[in-house]
Amino acid sequence: MSALPQGDIRLLETEVAQGLLGSTIPARMAYLGSDGTPRVVGTWFHWNGEELVMPTFLAAPHVPRPAARLRALQRNPYVAITIDTEQFPPHVLQLRGQVTITEIEGLAPEYVAAAHHYMGEPTATEYLAQIDQPGTRMARIALRPTWVGVLDFESRMPGVMAGQQS
Fold first, then answer.
1. Sign of the dihedral defined by the CA atoms of residues 6, 7, 13, 19, in that order
2. How far is it, in rounded angstroms, from Cα 69 to Cα 31?
3. What pLDDT was estimated at residue 97?
4. What is the pLDDT of residue 87?
């Protein structure tokens, strides 16, 4: 699949993309804040094979107010996301598109799955029991990518390093 151009959603099927989507590396989501300036937030995610789901709280015992990104994303749903490694050579998955936001009573199933994935079984079970209380509500932020980029710095280099014009 190295012949696929950057932007092709079939890049999601590559070994690098699949490895990153199955990793415990947080996604970093870039979006425009309500004041029009850029923001980046690290977040747990769950990949369901079609959507990258990044649930966040609207209300919960430990949450004083809904995440500010929700209002901004409702105004402008376009995002860019990266999931990348720190080792050399780095592996990078880049996603772009529009998110949809759905309100959920209780814990979003993707949040439960992400907690188990990131925290491990005993810790996640204990944590989820503490926050799964009456009044807990979540927002399911879901991205169905329309643009995908993969860099492995071996067979897939950034355009400038590969001799392409920017």
1. positive
2. 8
3. 98
4. 86
Global pTM value: 0.88
The answer, yes or no, to whether the previous bond of 89 is cis (omega within 30 of 0) is: yes
* Contact partners, residue 157, CB within 8 Å, separation at least 6: 151
Element of type H or E holding 70: helix 68-75
In tens, the pLDDT along 29-78 reads 999 999 999 999 999 999 999 999 999 999 988 888 888 899 999 999 99
Residue-by-residue DSSP string for 80-119: EEEEE-SSSS--EEEEEEEEEEEEEES--HHHHHHHHHHH
> CB within 8 A of 99, min separation 6: which ones?
73, 77, 79, 141, 142, 143
Alpha carbon distance 142, 130 (integer Å)? 25
Alpha carbon of residue 157 to chain centroid: 22
